[in-house]
Amino acid sequence: MSFNPDRAFYGSFSKLLLDGEWQTNANSVEATVEMSKGELNVMGDDWTRYKKGQKNGSGTFSGYKVTSKMIEQGFERFELIISLEDPEAYGHERVRLKNCMADSIQLANVTSGEIIEEETPFTFEGYELLDAVTAQ
């Protein structure tokens, strides 16, 4: 099957939900999981081996400043659902990020003559793939 460019996801159709509330002002979200690995060097083997370790989830979301929600939220835990949608793609994908907590809270970011944006870096403790995309 050859690649159909219409099936590639276009980010404009995606959604970010914070504790179930659609963040209509959001314009960017990124989340990754990294796994630490312990190195194992054993006699008689010229390859370094690796043992799985702890996972670390982190990310950031940003958007246009329209409310004081994130200042009020403070460092209390929240849940994010990232919904990747595009009517031309093969379905949609939703990922739930569990036990999120802001790393920092932006209190002010003002430049005269510019629209104010807000960015929130965060960590999370677990994720769940709610809907997966499969080629049809």
Please describe what this structure looks like:
The structure is a single chain. Strands 1, 2, 3, 4, 5, 6, 7 and 8 form an eight-stranded antiparallel sheet that branches. It contains one helix and eight strands, in the order ββββαββββ. The mean pLDDT is 91. The chain is mainly β. The longest helix has 5 residues. The N and C termini lie close together (10 Å). Helices cover 4% and strands 49% of the residues. A hairpin with a 2-residue loop joins strand 1 and strand 2. The radius of gyration is 19 Å and the shape is globular. The protein has a single domain, classed as Roll (Pnp Oxidase, Chain A). Pfam families: DUF2001 (PF09393). It comes from Alkaliphilus metalliredigens (strain QYMF). This is Phage-like element PBSX protein.
Distance between the termini: 10 Å
Mean pLDDT score, rounded? Answer: 91
Largest sheet: 8 strands, antiparallel
Radius of gyration: 19 Å
Q: Tell me the overall shape.
A: globular
The CATH architecture name reads Roll
- The H/E string reads EEEEHEEEE
CATH class: Mainly Beta
Give a quick precis of the structure.
By secondary structure, the chain is mainly beta.
Topology overview:
Elements: E1 15-18, E2 21-22, E3 26-40, E4 49-64, H1 69-73, E5 78-84, E6 93-102, E7 117-124, E8 127-131
Antiparallel strand pairs: 1-2, 1-5, 3-4, 4-7, 5-6, 6-7, 6-8
Pfam families: DUF2001
Protein name: Phage-like element PBSX protein
InterPro entries: DUF2001, XkdM-like_sf
